[in-house]
Amino acid sequence: MSEFSLIDRFFKSITAQYPQTRRADVALGIGDDCALLNIPAGKQLAVSTDTLISGVHFPEQTAPQDIGYKSLAVNLSDLAAMGATPAWVSLAITLPEQNEKWLQGFVSGFAELCQQYQLQLIGGDTTHGTLSITVQVFGFVDNDLALRRDQACAGDDIYVSGCIGDGALGLHHILNHQQQPESCIQHLNRPTARVELGQKLLGISRCAIDISDGLLSDVGHLTEQSQLAAVIDVSRVPLSEDLSAFYQYGIDWSAVLNGGDDYELCFTLKSDLRNQVENLQHELGLSLTRIGYIKEGSGVYCVDENGREMPIKPAGYNHFKDNL
Ligand code: ADP
Ligand code: MG
Known about the structure:
The model has no long low-confidence stretch (mean pLDDT 93). Helix content is 34%, strand content 25%. Strands 8-10-7-11-9-12 form a 6-stranded mixed beta sheet. The chain has 2 domains: 3-142, CATH 3.30.1330.10; 149-316, Phosphoribosyl-aminoimidazole Synthetase, Chain A, domain 2 (Alpha-Beta Complex). It has 11 helices and 12 strands. Helix 3 (64-82) packs parallel to helix 4 (100-116), helix 3 (64-82) packs parallel to helix 7 and helix 5 crosses helix 6. By secondary structure, the chain is an alpha+beta fold.
């Protein structure tokens, strides 16, 4: 198969095969030198790119469906963190071989999310080499309302969605050839981008980041860019039942707070808006937990439930140790 028939068969065909992904704001899609796209009036275009490399961003044995899904999900998570609504996606893929079964699997996982978010694949590039996937997503956000890392204020509460640590626990299980618990592996391979939450935070919050490299490191990016400090009450950090069961003899907080692949949102909010978070939590059926606050200064401080500082090993440590 030539490069061009491969593009037609597996990528250009997506809009025909999944008609829900065809959008009116795409004047020209796959096939020309560029796509031509119309941005709605009153909106800003939010753009983000992430590359996934086999053996680095996903274990080599990962199913192609999961690779397709994840490569889009991690990009959607960046749009979510800005409060943007997904619209278009481009895909640059480097393939080691022409494996039709693999490509079919990849496209079906990728298209699942395109359908869910009415996202149209508008172009890309196809090359030969070590497996690598670069996805670029484009979304819309109301002028000047985007959630930004540099907009935290002293006194703001800090919240996280969902649970922390499950992606890293899933990776630990895969690297140790354990298939249980399935939910953590699912979390690693098919993370849920919190797109709806990001959209609903517009006008309530000004500041958010998605947690992809570990809670402490990502809160660190937020405080650095806002030129402020954060205090995290570690006892409030939400953990799943699977993670609590894994750590029944004592939680390795360094692993939980520095592990990657959470794809939850961390956002800050004036403390007099707490009841809005309550409402949002019910509306979305998603837990939103207050884990700390922003203050003057710099750095991220972990404290226990009595406010005593906890020495947590710095980021970069991202493998779970076996429990005793
Ligand atoms: P050019 O050589 O002009 O860059 P290509 O031959 O790389 O064009 O691609 C032809 C068309 O197919 C372009 O519209 C391009 O955006 C699209 N395309 C190539 N690879 C992909 C892909 N993996 N997914 C989606 N569209 C693709
Ligand atoms: Mg090209």
